[in-house]
Amino acid sequence: MWRNRGCHGDALPPQARLSDEKGLKSRRCLSILIAGGILTQLQISDWHSKPYISFVPEVILDRCYQLAKNSPCVKAKFGAVILREHEIVGEGWNHSPNPAFQDCEHQCAGGIRLGIASGTRVELCHAGHAEGWAIAAAGREAQGGLIYVAGTDKDGNKLLKDPSLPLGNPRRGFYCTLCIRHIWMAGLRGIWVNSVNGPLFQTLDEAWETSYSVAVAGVGK
Predict the structure, then answer these.
(1) Per CATH, is 52-217 categorized as 3.40.140.10?
(2) Residue 132 near residue 92 (C-beta atoms within 8 A)
(3) Is the confidence at residue 19, as pLDDT, over 60?
(4) Cα-Cα-Cα-Cα dihedral sign, residues 197, 156, 42, 207
(5) What is the mean pLDDT of residues 46-62?
(6) What is the pLDDT, as a whole number, of residue 71?
(7) CA 170 – CA 118 distance, rounded (Å)
(8) SS percent in the chain: helix, strand, coil, step 5
(9) 0.70 exceeded by pTM
(10) Which of 29, 39, 132, 155 is the most buried (most CB within 10 A)?
(11) Where are the domains of the chain?
């Protein structure tokens, strides 16, 4: 786990540096430089009152993808990061807490969840989801923070959301009814996911709606 206390580039991992342009007060210009090249530039108003935009979301979502690689799931691999006051306080990826149930191919996706759509019957899964692991790692520090979630399919293809799709489609937005309940209980303020249009921010109300619409529709990828 890497942490950033404040907005100093040398506290970030080697592949990411945060540069704060001088001379701007109420508006600040932040540049994220990835591997020596500028990835994007973001104009930010009232920066100090909105800590959740002190990092360009792409950088944190990239960290989610890195974490997802640790998952033994053969269906979908997810990583989650909780950011609070410029500091990563919790990270996680989907895997079972029980050492005897790490064989997803035969015990879970190919076992008790065989034929069950994603986003439904979440009780029939041996794994703890990435969001739950991140919340457990953060503890009370999660309160007031933002959670970032991103994942891939079994072949490493990014699972991108598409907000133009109808409610009930798991690709519309965040869609886990179990995790959205835990996110509310932890006191988190919102969710960043990745989409076909780039990083997508969802309020808890929006994520609640997209999650339960999938569960009710009973569809999934």
Answers:
(1) yes
(2) yes
(3) no
(4) positive
(5) 63
(6) 95
(7) 8
(8) 30, 25, 40
(9) yes
(10) 132
(11) 52-217
